[in-house]
Amino acid sequence: MAPTIVVVDLDGTLVNSDMLVESIFLFLRLHPMRVFEMFVWLFKGKAYFKRRLADSVMPDVRQLPYNRELVAWLGQQRDTGASLILATATDLRIAKEVANHLGIFDEVHGTENANLSSHNKRDVLTQRYGMRGYEYVGNSAADFAVWQTASVIHIANPGRGVLAAARKLGTVDAVFETRSPYFRTLTNALRIHQWAKNLLIFVPLLASHRIFEVPLLINGVLAFLAFGACASSVYLLNDLLDLPDDRQHPTKCNRPLAAGTFPILHALFLIPSLLVGAFVIALVLLPIQFAGVLTAYYMLTLAYSLWLKRVVMLDVVTLAMLYTVRVIAGAAAMALVATFWILAFCVFIFISLAFVKRYTELHDARKKGKTEKFSGRGYYPADFELLASLGGASGYISVLVLALYINESASGTMYHSPQWMWAACPLLLFWLSRVWLLAHRGQMHDDPIVFALRDTTSRWVGVTFVLVFALAAF
Length: 474
Description:
alpha/beta; six-stranded parallel sheet; about 60% helix
């Protein structure tokens, strides 16, 4: 009796990702100045495009988000004597790297001179193994042509409507569904919790004591939504560019795109959609100055994702500027002034928090005994002590700026009881000192803003800080 032949697709099936998209973004990250070459390659056909991409970049197949349930099932099939075949539209060289890494496949078919997808894949498989001579594991509508000639249908993480349509072609045997609820992974991928950073937009409104003016509040809310959509678009783009590094990070490896729990093609759709939505709000509903600040924020974030995050110290300054730009955006949206004192305070405190972020990453690496340069960054674990000194000094300078603002005679004209504001200085000193102490102990979240939102002590300090200024004003 002839052994069972099980043919497996790669993209979205064996791997919870798309190797073509990953290769494109890896190319953009490593060779951003060669972006126009890709358009020339594409005009020469998909097979040529994939071949030239594989000539330039090779994803690290050891870090790919494999469908572990499917891999375990394939191992069981192999133990029973089945012959396992990997057949994919991915470039043949990448497919062979995957096969060599897993060590379970007897044959590999991939794109060489023709794009091995849908009907082309079906023709190759039927010619090699005969009509109904193989079982096939796929995941998308592109696999319908192959399932029509397969003896048994298996499906992994089917797209919308794929499972129902596959059942019309024949009996579906195994279904490997490993994805989390879509809405949860969507909100995680968009990093909705990070939208809390956009509350900085309201700082100029609070500082001007015009918080109860409804038109300004409406503009602030619109600016908040525009910045949130723009930021989520950038987060998705950043995660696509950072896939190799995120998969080696102890916590970032759980991000939806790195872990393969969120469809990578959905991210490609959301990136431009969110960006267009953000600029529609900016251009139609808000002052044109806000659109200019939003453009500057997007360009700076793009530069950070592509290059600046890997430049020592410049990455920290850029992070601080990205926070400060939100304050400037709020002033532009509500036709207010971002004063010297506000901007100086923001720059120093956010540089301190940016140093906390880098310090935490390096502290964890040092604790694990690593000495080599941190993946995707320009720092070595041994640099963490210097970052602590610089970050602590920046934080304390922000307190000094606050004290100088309180002491300025002009501040007294805006507050009925300005003496209350002095209580804000020890509050801020306490919070910054505590943040750095927890970072030194290895108890800090890799994003200090997320830490502040989740930490009970930080929330109470924040409420008290606002209350102090409210008492001073009224």
